Amino acid sequence: MLDNSIFPEGRSGGQIDPYSVQIIVGHHLNSIRSLISMVGIVIKRPELFHRFFRVVRLGGWGYALSLTARKLGLARSPCDKPQAYALSASQKEKLQREKFRTVPFYLDPSPSTDFPLTPKKVAVHLHLYYDDMTEMCIQYLRHVPQEFDLFVSVPGKRNAKNYQSRLKQGIPRVNQVVVENVPNQGRDIAPFIIQFGTRLATYDYIAHFHTKKSPHVTHFDGWFNSLMNLLCGSENGIRQILHLLEEDARVIYPAGNKGALWDATGWLENRDIARSFLFAHNLFDVDEFPFAEFPQGSMFWAKAECLKQFLSLPLSYHDFPKEPIPADATLAHALERLVLMFTTTSTGRNYRLEAPELSCESLEYYEEQNDYSSTRVHHDIKILADYQPCFFSSEKTGKNGWDAVRSATPLFEGHYQQHIPHDDLGYYDQSAGQTLLEKQAEMMRKSGVHGIIFPLDWRQGSPVFEQPMECLRTAPQITLAYCFCWTGGLDQNDLPGARHLIDYLIPFFKDPRYLKVDHRPMVLIGDSDTHRAVKSCETLWRQECQSHEIHPPFWVGRLNSTGDLPADSGFDAFVEPILLDEIGKEIPPINQNLYPYWPLKASVFDYGEVADHYAGQSHESPLLCFRSLVPAWDNMARPQEESDALLHRANPEKMQQWLSRLIEDTEARLPPDHRFIVVNGWNEWGHGAHLEPDIKFGYGYLNAIGRALCDYPYDGFDYIRPVPDLHLEFILAPGVSQRLQSEFLTRKYFLHGLAQFCLTQGFQLTIHNFQIAAELRALGIVCNGRIGREVDFVIEFSEPVIFPPDSLVALVKMGLRHRGFHISATPCNDPDFVHEETTPNFSIGYWQRGALNLRPPGTWRGSKVCPQAIYFKVSPSLRSNHQKLEKVATIVRFHHGADPDILMRSLYSLLAQADCKVQPWLALQDLMDEEMDSLQHKLDGMPWPDECRPMIRRYASSLDTPDVRSLMLNDTMKAIGKGYVAFLDYDDILFSHAYRTLLARLENVDKNATFGRVFSTTVDSDTGLILNREKKYTLGQTYQDYLQLNHAPLHSFMLNLDLIDLTRIHYFDDMKFLEDYYLTLQIFSAEKTDWSSLQDSIFIGDYIHRRGDKKHTLALSDSKQRNHLLEQKEYRLCEERVVALRQRISDALPPASVS
Fold first, then answer.
1. Of 325, 492, 569, 816, which residue is least crowded by CB atoms under 10 Å?
2. Cis preceding linkage at 183, omega within 30
């Protein structure tokens, strides 16, 4: 056993446990090369020594060494994803499904059964660290519905007998109470195993609770109550938990805290500690679990048999450090993550209890409400939404619709249940009355919902749910249009009943807010029986309306029938039916692709497929057809029937696409005063179809309607106009300030981007860095913000970066588009960074944020990446400011019609080159005057050193030579004439160490060219997401390899023109393809070129393939496109020229040199 006293302090000034030390020694210091590299960097930059020990004080030695290895690139090779990135969502789901067998579950607050208790031995372990929480624990334990034994661990030397007496008296159904003093080591998990594990293992069911506080993380306040309300909040809830244990539950635990900033794997820094511990005790291999599902907060109920091995682990208190300990990365934190892993050899499943404040439901599509009322362009479109009054209690039925909603639980993996209303409305009832309708009406006004449709179920002479309708009628100040959908309750030929009903409706018809078509009050008919009743009373109603000087009703059919209604149906119009019980005839269900938790009778369909199906329908009926749609559909909150249908993966983005197509169709078919679209529904919570906000989507569906009515794209934000007095606070990490002070060019570029942003936007600014603020003030920029004005956004720099001013504008706009989220800019030149291809709505994990981030000062709902907000990392300089920097001329070709913004990205990657100066030579083909002016404006906005301002050479094509890229390449190189030259296609990127790496080779070898490697990188042209980096171009390493196959993309090498005779280089002006290979075949040779540099395989940039973009690049990654290109006549001509040149070179080589 190692003596804890010899180990340095951890994150909070405490000690590190022996298993952590083994990891530090065995994992972080396993490479002499790593140590030498770290020491070498510190010698060159001694300020890093102090920074390293500052990190030690904050996070402990293990954390500091791990972070240092990552920062210096010693932990992995370029483009090997960090562990946090490496686990995909599908991998995580598979582990939860097959290993942990995790079932998300909602306890029913109003169950239909009493869940009778069975005679089982039950024990509870309570770790009572905080004495002031004792009474709170007693109140929770009073809810345990059957007799149980209580084992209590109390750290230190507190009086155990006093606790025993107090607990025994306060808890009615407790049998024996055992209170024992324990060392203050290992938090709650150590006494659970060491002190009581053997005894607890003899019970049938056990629970583990402790007085949870997290003083180091303020957003965990209230976590204890959230956990205990689920585990021990009511007798009814515990009965359901015990019932699950009786069935197939292994462990039952609460969902994790939404504010927990875990990495994708759930391990954080604990995996290697767990590996060392498990290996030492000859237990299972931790690599079987790349993802750790665990009870966050380490509180749970369990079947003791499933945790018997965990409870008998051979531990002692000496294995754990004394308090205070780090907030993470200790043996206790590792053991917490092993709880469920020890159950995987047992039968049964683990249940994760969900709750609004703890739910693991993703928030990718969550939105706060925006106001679109003043920017609508589709003014004639009237969106109507079905309004369900069943969420108001009915005296006739005695039921409340919320009961079914709150009893729902997920039935299969990925199933969105429960639907929980947003706090802005909550589980409302009739007590909300007029106030509720005012809130709802304001939500509709902002989003563009024109009115609502009340169902009219007429029973015993009055509506079943009358209160909300009467409340609206008697509140004229609520400017909300409405109408009725008559759904039954009147028999055919019941004229007295019909007269009574029309007498009830007349006051509503007279209301100016009641919807009218051609001055006729609109009434929808919801079923065939009601349709027959209408026909029998139509004459009576017409007479009654006439007697009140009201036009007769405008009848709208809403029948669940296939096909359009005939002209003689008696209706004036009909609503397009969404026949989900018939959709299986058109679209196959996806049940076979689902992983069910419970028996599933309903047919499940993909929402996107259903939306596309109905959006593409055409209606040529002689009757008016009002199109309709659903935001979702899921009636699994109600008893299932075989005919039920459920729409899976519904989201606001797809609904907006559906609605936009309906708007287009409606405007094309119907006259302006008949353009209605019906959404089912406004608050159909029992069927999961609600525009009203919930805790998962927020106001996403309402905003989707607003955007569709304004013609705003779902995933865009260019339409957003930030208010001029927006208050931004800029925060620079300490390391950023130090580097800006020591690196002149980095500071120049950084300040330029910041200053240009500030000058053009006019926001209120607060910058706490005195030096940066002073330099901005010298440019006339006020940096102290407005006194008393709260900060709207905080912009943080964790590294010094170069960025276009538009990047900060994009960050702000996306922050306004996705309020409450952290927005991370995209690093264009970071080889370790890629987006997840399946990223929904630009969402990323907290751990995937970059060096430039925007966040709101308060709420955190998640993190998103902004592809339009780009930045470029700058490698730390290895030279002092007084050392001369070499100059590199870089040739970039650009043509008419190409995207100048893509060009700017390439040029910014040149600005970011470390320890050298780069002068772009832009060869421009056929640019129009306006294109030239725009490009010049963009170039002038970049912070070029005076001696490195871009050189511009303009070229014109001809009918005979429509593409002069070969001319531009060769002519520009000859114009440069001497020195170091490199090349960069306008749509590719170089990493910041690229030229420093290549220059270091050329400065030390007498060679005319040297090489790096480049990734084959895929970028989505629509979203800008960097999807993939592959090491494709790594085959060749010798001159002979190069003669056989061009393995060196144009920007992967650098030339020294001083060692090249440019007069001997020949080229063809019209050579559109392979022109770079033709050039380098004349330059590279076996002796004069640095082929050994290829053996290092240092990656210096991206060779970018833009997926979905056929206009701006010749880089082809699609095999069909490539094969088509190879068949073109002009390509074959270029290839013949290359073959002829290679033959001449081979003929001139000595026989031994030709492979």
1. 492
2. no
Contact 1090, 1010 (CB under 8 A): yes
What is d(CA 182, CA 159) in angstroms, rounded to the nearest whole number? 12
Tokens of 628: 């309709």
Residues 6+ apart with CB under 8 A from 927: 894, 895, 896, 935, 954
How far is Cα 818 from Cα 809, in angstroms, rounded to an integer?
14
Number of helices (H) and strands (E), helices first, in the chain? 35, 41
pLDDT band at 4 (very low <50, low <70, confident <90, very high): very low
Residue 67 has pLDDT above 50, yes or no: no
Burial group, residue 497, by CB count within 10 angstroms (0-12, 13-18, 19+): middle
Q: Which residue stretches of 10-142 are H helix?
A: 18-23, 32-44, 47-59, 61-71, 83-86, 89-98, 134-141
Let me know: does 899 contact 942? Beta carbons within 8 Å: no
Helix, coil or strand: residue 204: coil
Question: How many angstroms separate the CA atoms of 834 and 823, rounded?
Answer: 16
Query: What does the alpha-carbon distance between residue 588 and residue 604 come to, in Å, rounded to a whole number?
Result: 9
Q: Range with the lowest mean pLDDT among 201-210, 532-541, 766-775, 993-1002?
A: 532-541
Element (H, E) at 724: none
Least confident of 399-408, 610-619, 894-903: 399-408
Domain locations in the chain as residue ranges: 4-80, 86-353, 382-710, 727-873, 886-1152
> How far is it, in rounded angstroms, from Cα 662 to Cα 614?
9
CA quadruple 877, 879, 883, 889: dihedral, nearest 10: -50
Write out the two tokens for 484: 């009725």
Check: CB of residue 413 under 8 Å from CB of residue 706. Answer: no
Two domains, one topology: 86-353 and 886-1152: yes
The two structure tokens encoding residue 934: 């725009």
Average pLDDT score over the chain? 87
Question: What pLDDT sits at residue 383?
Answer: 98
| Rounded-to-integer distance, Cα 623 and Cα 117, Å | 61
Tokens of 238: 């515990």
By the 8 A CB rule, do 422 and 692 touch?
Answer: yes
Tell me what the mean pLDDT of segment 555-579 comes to.
Answer: 80
SS3 303: strand
Query: Facing residues of 454 across strands?
Result: 484
AA letter at 954: R
Decide if pLDDT at 32 tops 50: no
Assign 742 to helix, strand or coil. helix
Contact 812, 866 (CB under 8 A): no
- CB 181, CB 155: distance < 8 Å: yes
Least trusted range by pLDDT, from 256-260, 401-405, 943-947, 1038-1042: 256-260
Question: Span 193-204, mean pLDDT?
Answer: 98
Dump pLDDT digits (tens) for 350-359.
999 999 888 7
Residue 634 pLDDT > 50, yes or no?
yes
Q: What percent of the chain has pLDDT over 70?
A: 87
Please count the other Cβ atoms lying within 10 Å of the Cβ belonging to residue 743: 21
Residue with tokens 């995909």: 88
Neighbour-count burial of 19, counting CB atoms closer than 10 A to its CB (0-12 exposed, 13-18 middle, 19+ buried): buried
CATH of domain 86-353: 3.90.550
886-1152 folds as Spore Coat Polysaccharide Biosynthesis Protein SpsA; Chain A (3.90.550)
Structure-token pair, residue 538: 């139509």
Structurally, what CATH architecture does the domain formed by 382-710 represent? Alpha-Beta Barrel (3.20)
Beta-strand ranges (E) seen in 460-567 are 462-463, 481-488, 516-517, 520-525, 554-557
Asked which of 54-68, 682-696, 737-751, 842-856 is least confident by mean pLDDT, the reply is 54-68
Residue 146: asked if its preceding bond is cis (omega within 30°), the reply is no
In terms of Cα–Cα distance, which of 375, 458, 425, 355 is closest to 104? 355
